[in-house]
Structures are given as C-alpha cells and as structure tokens.
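Recall the central idea of this unit: under ordinary conditions, the amino acid sequence of a chain determines the structure it adopts. In this exercise we apply that idea directly, starting from the sequence alone.
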Amino acid sequence: MSDRLTGAVVATLGALSFAYGSQLPPVPGQQVGPSAFPMVIGVGLVLCGALIVLGVGRRLEEVAEADVALHTAPELLKPPPPWKAWLALLPPALVAFYALASEALGFLPTAAIMVATASSAFGARAKLVIPVAIIAPFVVNLIFLKLLRVPLPGGLLPFPW
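Accordingly, the structure predicted from this sequence is:
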C-alpha cells in the first residue's frame, strides 16, 4: 500500500475517534471526562496520518534501510513467508475479541488473553509473555480506575480494590 493511502486511513480513523469522543457526555463535577481519551488519540492519529501522507521522515527511513542492508546477512533480507502477512489482521481481531468478550469475561482475563496472544504471535518468549500478560492488565485497570475514574468491565474476575 502506498504511504498516502495508509496515512489517509490513519487520519480518517483519527477524525472518527475525535468525532465519537466529542459526542460523549461530560461527567458532572469533573473537568476531564470520558471524551478526553478518544479525542486526544484522534488528534494524534490525524497528525500522524497527515505526516505520513506528506512523506515526513521518508528520507530517514531510506537511509536507515540502506544502513541495515549494508550490515545484514543476505538470508535475512528475504521477504517473510506469506502467512506472516496475516499477522497484520491480529490487532483488529483482538479489538473485536475485546468488544465481544470483555463484558462476559471482564477486563482482566480478556486483556491477559489479548496480551498473551499478541506477544506470542509477534515472537516474544514465554518467560516474558506470561508475566506481562498477568501484570499489564492489572496496571492498565489501575490507571483507568484510579487516575481516569473509568471502571472497566468486572466480569468473572473483578478488580480486587
């Protein structure tokens, strides 16, 4: 895919995120409500998409790729096997999984499954996958609950505090 098309898709997703976030109702008595996060992410995606469309940083990528090519063994420069292209569909599939499973399972088990699946699929070792899949959901839940005051689904395993 061309950079212009990719950048346009990223910018469009950012605009949609911003538009959705701006429609969320404010929380009485709080300056920052549930609309802040999708709007900030939306602005970031629009900016990144615009930079991609404009080709900002393309020259740096070409220099880095040429440098890697000089110092890389020829067998490592072969294109990846065709099945690896399907890994690009894993993140959206995991988001769909979260949307479908988080209410029933709860955030903690759903996020642990997502982290373990993504880490394993992208080549992380089991001795790193397991601790991260156990610890990361607790940290994220703590951030949402204590800092953002947004409760995540409790499901089978509600957050303990």
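The two ends are 46 Å apart (CA to CA).
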